[in-house]
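I am writing to request your help with a piece of structural work I have in hand. What I wish to show you is a protein chain and, alongside it, a tokenised description of its three-dimensional fold. Could you please explain, in whatever detail you think fit, how the structure tokens follow from the sequence? You will find the record immediately after this paragraph.
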Amino acid sequence: MKIKALLGTVTFTLKKYSPEIFLGLGVVGVIGSTVLACKATLKADTILDEYEENLDKIEESVELRKTGEIKDADYSKEDEKEDRRSLAFATAGKFIRLYGSSFTLMTVSVGCILGSYQIMKKRNVALMAAYKLIEEAFSNYRKRVVHELGENADTRFYYGVQVDDDAPTKKYTDEDGTEHDLVIANHNLSGFARFFEEEKPDQIGGWNGSTQWSKAHEYNLDFLKAKEDHFNAMLLSKGFVTINDVYSELGFMPTEAGMVCGWRYKSDRGDGYVSFRPRGIDGNWTYGKNGESIILDFNIDGVIFDDRVARKEMK
């Protein structure tokens, strides 16, 4: 029984790590095949020399036949064709034997790499299927929470936030034209957070909201995701991104602090990436509707301006 259990454990381990094993064998095989090919190339000159030597003999016999020193009966054109054909096949056979082991090893190695890819592809399909089932179950669970306890309760459970009785509200109109008060969840927003919503004048002569906002909620989601990807790429290539860079692209007014605050690549204080951390006005990102605002609470690193570095650059 112990041997059977041991064999079962070994079999399970091999199946579990089969993609890594196949990939490792493939890489090693490719390297080994390259080494064998290099060694075989050193011997190729000998084969080519033998080929040239035998070909010269054939050409010499042909010239003697043309000058009449050799009769056609002794070395006919058919004999010439047969010699050339035999020489070609013999030389090709020598090259096949010379490079055969390298070619076979390369073929097996590529097969191992492709086998690793196929195994991972099947596993990813299975993982996606499992993920979809979990996602569907979780979505149905949240719908039941909303149905039984309301959206504010779902927000508290999902984000771990507390909605106070005196929390601020926003007006919104449903599909029937009825106006409601929508409670804004208390997320302890930072001073850099912005409401991605329709641009409108404030009470002191300025403007709130974004020039890029659309009444189509799905468009806003796609727009924000594309901009987030854009700034993550900029962070990698440029090394830093200021919050004013982001504000400008998203249609917000720049700020004084925005000139020196933002994200720096491989910063010890940040997450290492740019995230807008978008949420619906009630804290729920998934169930946003057309015409609703979106809260953007950016995960900035803080002040990325280094006075000492700047002074060195100015000298």
Observations:
- The chain has two domains: 2-143, 167-311.
- The chain has seven helices and ten strands.
- The mean pLDDT is 79.
